[in-house]
């Protein structure tokens, strides 16, 4: 490892040279100390090396760099203000081969370095005094040759010294990476880049690794750190819905077999889940991947086990889901009861309040021996995130004849429930990571991405879109649309299988005929009006 | 993706519906078609008849263990054991919980009755300090409803903040609950042909009058902190104005303190209340009685092991999880044990556990147990080589040994509980029962001062005669009466020796006290006397310290001897081995924390992080295992994006993300996706990240997204 050796050698002359500086009040000239110090440097260096991206740069440049170090540093050493000597040395060393050094060349070497202040890395500033003190303590001890009667103290001193040395190495390494990049003096095109490197610690190119999440949060949210390139996706043709689906159909997932296997593993727990449900617990399946298939299979399993049980599936990812949908479906799942559920609703006069319906539903359920199983896909889906719905569900789940199993897709789902609801649900959680792809009904990929990019609003399509457009039309236009749609459907039926076999050939209706029908139904009186309406 | 299109088309329609009734027919249909070609959906009218299921029992049976080799009888027995043992425990718990609230209920009832007679012109208000856990309030208010409507004949309405967002909704709820709760013929609103609005208290009055019910309604606010203060003030003012027609009483469940609650009300409103404060039994003591009855008591068939129990109790104290959570955990432990442990059949009584039931697999399983190993080792050490050899080789011999363990278990448990009960009765140990129980399970009981788990030695030695006598009296009565909480009956008959010795001691010490009293001296033992007297003498300006070897009288010496005897008796009576030292304890102790933690304390963040950063842990595919937590082009798209995501800063440039992704999976890489396919994958991954809440749109820069998760 030539590279590593060189790295070790580099600091050596400087360390001893530093010792010779008489101006620094903290420095004690002592040759005995240097070997020890060098040894300590050696270890962190080698570890740091292996993890840092700048490694390659090192490989390319180390020869030139070393010579630069050896030649240049004596001249610069003289000009260094004595105060900063102790702390700035490691950085000064790495800075030497940089372009900055070349700039200094033009000036008198005696002049103090103009940018000498920014060399100490920000991180080490805080440690500086502690480090100095501990260094001094160590040196004193060695000079005195005294047998230390306070081993602990020495250990502490050493620890402080070493840890900060470590960090400095780290910082040094980072900068070295920076400056090696900028060190190709032959390419003038790099010059703007060089200027920016005047403040090397400002943007660390290699983020610290292995930070705990909270530290990472604070690190990444430091003001001024968020530097991203100005590239945009303007050159890229964004996908359309049609293209997305046509490409998707041809894609093969290399992990399909593994995903299926994972599903079958989860499926082995069906009896266990069924047992848990039967004991008054609710199960909640969480983890990455779509669990819709899994839940569906579970429903199949349950119904094969207990043919008499009613199973209701609620799809939490359907954006139009309301409490009324849930309740009315539950009501249809039960054998009709003209007495309780309907009469109280109508008795209220206006729209039945969900909570009253729930009460009626539950009392009705109690009067029957039926066991109702509710399976909820994506209990943390957007429509189900309202507290009212969750409390409704928990109310349902608390009923002894209702069993509830649900799936959750986001990592934050436990925040949905307070202690009371959690107790009512009586959840058992199972890790069901499936890696299955989310189907188009669960996740509208193209819309989601475009919304994320702020490109286009949600596709106006879907049921809501059509309803919205139709509602805004005048009544006659609506009637015409109905007529037209009816005619097209009839025409499709007539052409029937032929058209389908031909691969979706456009179905046409005769203009004249539609007009005549429209006139018959008093939608429009003249052809002129008909055209206007048609345009709408 | 590659999931069969045919199967998916079947579900397509249902998947877009918000809610629907799952029909078995369609599923079976689909399953049938799944194998055959995806034909058109047949419109079958109705299934002719539900398939005659072989398992037409109420609930499906447990799956057989031992890779399916377990005999149906054993499986059934496990299930029956679970079904018989848990309800007993649960009944005990319910009883404890109800008893715990008894005094509160009585107080509230008598207060409301007094308030009704007092005619203060104010609304009677009971402030019930329930503590922070709203989950455990339900039972209390349910009991309140039962007791109060029985005692006062009043209508009882329970209000929760979620039910009553505003005044109108609250009134509706009150009226509805007060009217429907009492009679079946619901529509009493229009008695005189007049229809009331459903939030008009007039209607309630008419209803009550018509049914000749007492004109009194008790409204309880379960989580009063969650109610808007304006709404509370309005309601109270309204109730007050109705006082001359309907008598309203209110009850508040308060988690914090009455002062804080009062500060939220208007002064004028607060003046209309005539209140009293009631404290509910603290959760800690409820928990202790639950543990006494359900975990430690003789009724419990399954023992919860010390480490699991400790973590459960810590969770209760640390996270205020509520007694309900504890009970659920307990139930889950029972479920796990009987569902998954084939040896749980050994818990059955003699009458049901036939030797034929034990299969070779059972015997084999027993031989793998830790306790079997230590049992054999102990036998070898005790030079019972034949015994040890037969245990290992002779299945028949082992089977009889196994069956014999049931009695040993009973004896052990009885002894353990009696010892614990006696320790409690001495009153010398400061530890709570739960702590004592846990330490007794894990380390046994030993009252030796230096090494024992329950160091009582010093405390007994230092007893003065008065305490001595009362201690002996307490022990005697404990032996006589047992403990109802633990389900222990008195065991005077079985412990004649102990009782006799204790009785003698008592008589002797009483005599000694009499005698020393007549001598004018106080009775002391050498343990209590010695250490206290320290004599200082000044001799030639030097201080001399000398221990006073206080002369002990004859009575004192006799008393010392009595103390020693008591100590010896106690160390014999209060001695117990740790539960793990017993042979076959695995069959009746459940001490595994893993299922409990997985199931009740999920870590979704860690799960998602692991799935996305190391998908091979789940997929177990060869291609991604090479990556070993790093980035590889074969990972699922979302996992690749997640890796890039964790490396990125708080703001992510989607264009750069895309180019990084494309560089990884694009044409040149070994995956070799063309640009459009890669873009499709990229879209999907990004959309999934968004759905899971990892990123959101950022308006700071074009084509940038903001990071939301640091897992």
Automatic annotation (TrEMBL), chain A:
Q: Name one GO biological process term.
A: DNA replication
Q: Where in the cell is it found?
A: Nucleus
Origin recognition complex subunit 2 RecA-like domain ranges (all copies): 259-432
Protein name, entry field: Origin recognition complex subunit 2
Recorded hits in InterPro entries, A to Z, give:
ORC2, RecA-like_ORC2, WHD_ORC2
Basic residues: compositionally biased ranges: 192-204
What interactions and quaternary structure are annotated?
Answer: Component of the origin recognition complex (ORC).
From TrEMBL, chain B:
Q: Where is the composition biased (Basic residues)?
A: 34-44
The keyword Nucleus is assigned to this record: yes
Positions the record marks as coiled coil are: 488-515
Keywords (A to Z) from UniProt: Coiled coil, DNA replication, DNA-binding, Nucleus
- Main location class: nucleus
List the molecular function annotations (GO) for this entry: DNA replication origin binding
Per UniProt, residues of the Origin recognition complex subunit 3 N-terminal domain are 44-346
Q: Does the keyword rRNA-binding apply?
A: no
TM stretches of this protein: none
Intracellular or extracellular location(s) = Nucleus
Output the Gene Ontology cellular-component terms.
DNA replication preinitiation complex; nuclear origin of replication recognition complex; nuclear pre-replicative complex
Tell me which family the UniProt entry assigns to this protein.
Answer: Belongs to the ORC3 family.
Record's protein name: Origin recognition complex subunit
Q: Which organism is it from?
A: Thermothielavioides terrestris (strain ATCC 38088 / NRRL 8126)
């Amino acid at each position: 490892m030539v590279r590593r050796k060189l790295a070790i050698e580099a600091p050596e002359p400087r360390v001893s040279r530093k010792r010779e500086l008489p101006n620094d009040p903290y420095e004690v000239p002592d040759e005995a100390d240097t070997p020890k110090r060098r040894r300590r440097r050696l270890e962190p260096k080698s570890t740091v090396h292996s993890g840092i991206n700048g490694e390659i740069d090192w490989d390319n440049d180390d020869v030139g760099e070393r010579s630069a170090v050896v030649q240049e540093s004596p001249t610069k050493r003289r000009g260094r203000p004595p105060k900063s000597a102790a702390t700035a040395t490691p950085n000064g060393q790495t800075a030497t081969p940089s372009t900055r050094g070349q700039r200094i060349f033009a000036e008198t070497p005696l002049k103090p370095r103009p940018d000498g202040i920014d060399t100490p890395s920000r991180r080490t500033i805080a440690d500086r005094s502690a480090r100095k003190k501990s260094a001094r303590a160590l040196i004193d001890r060695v000079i005195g040759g005294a047998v230390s009667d306070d081993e602990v103290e020495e250990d502490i001193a050493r620890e402080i010294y070493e840890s900060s040395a470590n960090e400095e190495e780290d910082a040094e390494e980072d900068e070295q990476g920076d400056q090696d990049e900028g060190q190709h003096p032959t390419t003038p095109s790099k010059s703007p880049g060089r200027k920016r490197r005047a403040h090397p610690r400002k943007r660390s190119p290699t983020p610290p690794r292995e930070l705990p999440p909270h530290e990472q949060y604070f690190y990444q949210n430091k003001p001024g750190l968020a530097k991203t390139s100005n590239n945009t996706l303007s050159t890229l043709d964004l996908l359309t819905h049609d293209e997305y689906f046509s490409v998707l159909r041809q894609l093969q997932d290399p992990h399909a077999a593994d995903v299926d296997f994972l599903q079958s593993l989860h499926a082995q727990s069906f009896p266990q889940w069924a047992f848990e449900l039967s004991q008054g617990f609710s199960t909640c399946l969480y983890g990455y991947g779509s669990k819709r298939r899994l839940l569906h299979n579970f429903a199949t399993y349950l119904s094969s086990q207990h043919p008499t049980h009613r199973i209701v599936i609620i799809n939490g990812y359907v954006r139009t889901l309301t409490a009324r949908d849930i309740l009315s479906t539950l009501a249809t799942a039960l054998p009709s009861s003209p007495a309780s559920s309907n009469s109280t609703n109508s008795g209220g006069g206006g729209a039945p309040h969900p909570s009253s319906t729930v009460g009626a539903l539950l009392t009705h359920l109690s009067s029957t021996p039926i066991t109702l199983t509710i399976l909820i896909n994506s209990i943390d889906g957007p429509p189900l995130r309202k507290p009212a719905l969750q409390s409704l569900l928990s109310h349902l789940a608390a009923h002894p004849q209702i069993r509830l199993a649900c799936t959750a897709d986001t990592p934050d789902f436990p925040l949905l429930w307070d202690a009371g609801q959690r107790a009512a649900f009586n959840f058992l959680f199972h890790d069901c990571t499936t890696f299955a792809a989310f189907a188009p009904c669960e996740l509208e990929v193209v819309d989601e991405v475009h919304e994320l990019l702020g490109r286009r609003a949600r596709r106006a399509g879907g049921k809501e879109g059509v309803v919205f457009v139709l509602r805004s039309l005048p009544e006659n236009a609506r009637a015409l649309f109905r007529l037209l749609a009816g005619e097209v459907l009839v025409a499709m039926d007539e052409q029937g299988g032929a058209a389908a076999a031909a691969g979706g050939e456009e179905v046409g209706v005769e203009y004249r005929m539609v007009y005549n029908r429209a006139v018959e139904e008093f939608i429009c009186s003249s052809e002129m009006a008909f055209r206007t309406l048609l345009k709408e | 993706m590659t999931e069969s299109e045919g199967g998916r088309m079947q579900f397509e329609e249902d998947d877009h519906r918000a809610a629907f009734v799952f029909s078995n027919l369609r599923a079976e249909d689909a399953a049938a078609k799944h194998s055959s070609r995806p034909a058109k959906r047949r419109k079958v009218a109705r299934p002719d008849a539900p398939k005659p299921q072989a398992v037409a029992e109420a609930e499906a049976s447990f799956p057989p263990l031992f890779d399916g080799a377990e005999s149906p009888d054993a499986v059934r027995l496990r299930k029956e054991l679970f079904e018989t043992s848990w309800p007993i425990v649960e009944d005990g718990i319910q009883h404890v919980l109800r008893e715990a609230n008894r005094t509160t209920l009585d107080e509230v009832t008598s207060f409301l009755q007094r308030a009704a007679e007092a005619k203060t012109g104010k609304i009677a208000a009971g402030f019930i300090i329930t503590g922070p856990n709203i989950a455990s309030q339900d039972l209390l208010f349910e009991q309140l409803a039962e007791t109060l409507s029985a005692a006062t004949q009043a209508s009882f309405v329970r209000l929760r903040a979620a039910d009553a967002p505003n005044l109108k909704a609250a009134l509706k709820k009150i009226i509805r609950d007060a009217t429907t709760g009492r009679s079946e013929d619901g529509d009493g609103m229009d008695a005189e042909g007049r229809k009331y609005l459903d939030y008009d208290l007039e209607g309630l009055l008419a209803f009550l009058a018509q049914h000749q019910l007492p004109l009194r309604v008790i409204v309880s606010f379960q989580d009063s902190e969650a109610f808007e203060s304006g709404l509370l003030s309005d309601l109270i003012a309204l109730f007050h104005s109705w006082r001359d027609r309907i008598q309203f009483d209110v009850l508040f469940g308060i988690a914090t303190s009455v002062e804080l609650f009062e500060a939220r009300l208007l002064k004028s409103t607060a003046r209309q209340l005539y209140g009293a404060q009631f404290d509910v039994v603290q959760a800690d003591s409820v928990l202790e009685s639950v543990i006494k009855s359900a975990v430690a008591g003789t009724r419990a068939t399954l023992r919860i092991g010390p480490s699991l129990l400790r973590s459960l109790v810590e969770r209760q104290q640390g996270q205020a999880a509520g007694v309900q959570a504890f009970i659920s955990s307990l139930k889950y432990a029972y479920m796990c044990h009987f569902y998954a442990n084939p040896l749980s059949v050994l818990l059955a009584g003699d009458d049901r556990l036939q030797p034929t039931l034990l299969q070779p697999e059972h015997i084999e399983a027993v031989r793998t147990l830790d306790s079997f190993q230590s049992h054999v080792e102990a036998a070898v050490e005790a030079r019972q080589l034949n015994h040890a050899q037969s245990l290992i080789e002779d299945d028949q011999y082992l089977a009889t040994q196994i069956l014999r363990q049931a009695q040993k278990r009973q004896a052990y448990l009885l002894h353990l509980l009696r010892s614990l009960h006696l320790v409690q009765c001495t009153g010398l140990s400061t530890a709570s029962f739960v702590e004592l129980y846990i330490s007794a399970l894990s380390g046994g009981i030993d009252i030796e001062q230096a090494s024992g788990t329950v160091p009582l030695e010093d405390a007994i030695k230092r007893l003065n005669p008065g305490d001595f006598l009362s201690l002996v009296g307490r022990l005697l009565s404990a032996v006589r009466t047992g403990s109802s909480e633990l389900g222990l009956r008195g065991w005077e008959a079985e412990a004649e020796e102990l009782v006799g010795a204790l009785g003698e001691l008592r008589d002797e010490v009483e005599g000694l006290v009499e005698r020393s009293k007549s001598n004018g001296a106080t009775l002391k033992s050498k343990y209590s006397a010695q250490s206290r007297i320290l004599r200082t003498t000044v001799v030639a300006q030097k201080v001399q310290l000398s221990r006073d070897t206080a002369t002990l009288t004859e009575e004192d010496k006799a008393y010392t001897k009595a103390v020693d005897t008591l100590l010896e008796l106690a160390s014999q009576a209060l001695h117990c081995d740790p539960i793990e030292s017993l042979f076959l304890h695995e069959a009746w102790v459940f001490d595994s924390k893993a299922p409990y933690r997985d199931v009740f304390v999920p870590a979704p963040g860690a799960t998602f992080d692991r799935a996305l950063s190391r998908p091979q842990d789940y997929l177990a595919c060869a291609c991604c295992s090479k990556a070993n937590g790093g980035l590889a082009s074969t990972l699922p798209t979302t996992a690749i994006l997640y890796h890039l995501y964790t490396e990125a800063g708080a703001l992510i440039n989607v264009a750069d993300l895309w180019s990084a992704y494309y560089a990884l999976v694009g044409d040149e890489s070994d995956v070799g996706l063309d640009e459009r396919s890669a873009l499709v994958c990229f879209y999907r991954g990004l959309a999934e990240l968004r759905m899971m809440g990892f990123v959101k749109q950022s308006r700071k820069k074009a084509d940038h997204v903001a990071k939301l998760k640091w897992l």
